C-alpha cells in the first residue's frame, strides 16, 4: 500500500516572512498523519524552515553531483543535509530547460543525494511539442532509463511525472492521459528494478490545485502530487493535502 505524498516546490519564491506559511502547512500536515507532505524551499530558507517545523519534511530543489569543488553558485548534498534538508528534487524541467541539465546529470545528482542520505524526487516529462507529436511515452521512458540511479528503491526514491506543458500553465492532461503515463512509468520501473517498483511512488505534477487534486489523486498509479504555484500558501496547499487524506 503506497502512502500518498504531497510535495510542494516553492521554486524561486519565499523570504523569511513566508515562514509563517510553512508553519501553517506543517500544522495541517500534522492533522493528516495518513498523508506524507513536504516542501522544497529555496536554499536560503532551508535552515530556518527546518528550525520552525522540526517534525515537518523540508527539502531542496536541486543539488550538485559533487560533494565539493570549484562550482560557483552550486550546492552539494552534504551542505543540504547540514542545512536540514531531508529530500531533494532532481531533473525538474526548469533545471533541464534553464540549465541544460540532461538525464545523465539527473542520474549523477540523484546518486550524490543518495550517498548523503537524502531522499530524492526524480522528475520526468515531455514538452508540448513532444506531446503533440505523440512522443511522450518514448521521451519519458528514455528519461527514466538514463536517470534512474543505481540501487533505486521505494524507501528513498520517488518519481514525478510532470508534462512540461502543464507546469504553471493551468493546463492539465486528461485523467486518462495521466493514467496511461503513470501505468507506462510503473511498467518501465518494474522492468528496471523488479517487483519493488510496485512500492515506488509516482507523483503527478503540473497545475495541480485544490480544485483538481481529488480527481487527479484518485487516478490509478497516482501516488501523490508535486505542486508548484499552489504550494506557496497554506490556503492553497492545505486543500491538496486534505484531498490526499
Ligand atoms: C512544478 O513546479 O513542479 C509544478 C508542477 O508547478 P505548478 O504546480 O505550478 O504547475
From TrEMBL:
The gene is tpiA. CDD domains: TIM (cd00311). Homodimer. Involved in the gluconeogenesis. Catalyzes stereospecifically the conversion of dihydroxyacetone phosphate (DHAP) to D-glyceraldehyde-3-phosphate (G3P). It comes from Sphingomonas trueperi. Pathway: Carbohydrate biosynthesis; gluconeogenesis; Carbohydrate degradation; glycolysis; D-glyceraldehyde 3-phosphate from glycerone phosphate: step 1/1. This is Triosephosphate isomerase. Its main location: cytoplasm. It catalyses: D-glyceraldehyde 3-phosphate = dihydroxyacetone phosphate; L-erythrulose 1-phosphate = D-erythrulose 4-phosphate. Keywords: Cytoplasm, Gluconeogenesis, Glycolysis, Isomerase. It is an enzyme of class 5 (isomerase). Belongs to the triosephosphate isomerase family. One of its GO terms (biological process) is gluconeogenesis. It is found in: Cytoplasm. GO terms for molecular function: triose-phosphate isomerase activity. Gene3D superfamilies: Aldolase class I. GO terms for cellular component: cytosol. The active site is at 92 (electrophile), 162 (proton acceptor). Coiled coil: none annotated. HAMAP family: TIM_B. Substrate binds at residues 9-11, 168, 207, 228-229. Its EC number is 5.3.1.1.
